[in-house]
Amino acid sequence: MDTYLTIAEAAELLKLSPKSVRNKIAAGQFQLGVHFYRPPGMTPRFKWNAVVKWMEAPMEAEDVAKIDAIPMPRRGRPTGRRTAADGEVDGKFHRWIWIDMATLKLHYEKPMWLR
Question: What is the domain count for the chain?
Fold first, then answer.
């Protein structure tokens, strides 16, 4: 006989928060009709045997690549070396880069209105 669990019970057994289980449902990692069911008038029920199979399934190559990848910073520019986007031109770093809209010319010095 299969065991059916609520989100809270499944989260407790998986050592996750209920929100994480809901996120996995929204992301499609848990599939309706395979891992969980929504009986009319009830909250989702997880089929424990299907969840165990999901946990024990071998990882896809792209999932392994995501785990091995170095994460990028969440905000701001990456730390470390400066790039052309930061104002480096011909090996020299320019703090001031601006465009003269009248001539559409790119300038690499401090604008006149800030001198």
Answer: 2
What does the pLDDT read at residue 111?
A: 56
For residue 76, being part of any structural domain is answered with no
- Distance (Å, whole) CA 38 – CA 93: 59
% of the chain surpassing 70 pLDDT: 57
Same domain, 49 and 90: no
Query: Which residues of the chain carry a pLDDT beneath 50?
Result: 78
In whole angstroms, what is the distance from residue 11 CA to residue 23 CA?
A: 11
47 SS3 class: strand
Query: Among residues 54, 9, 16, 7, which one has the least CA distance to residue 35?
Result: 54
Say whether both 59 and 102 belong to one domain.
no
- Are residues 12 and 59 part of one domain? yes
Confidence (pLDDT) at 10: 93
Beta bridge partners of 42: none
Helix axes 48-56, 7-14, angle to 10 degrees: 30
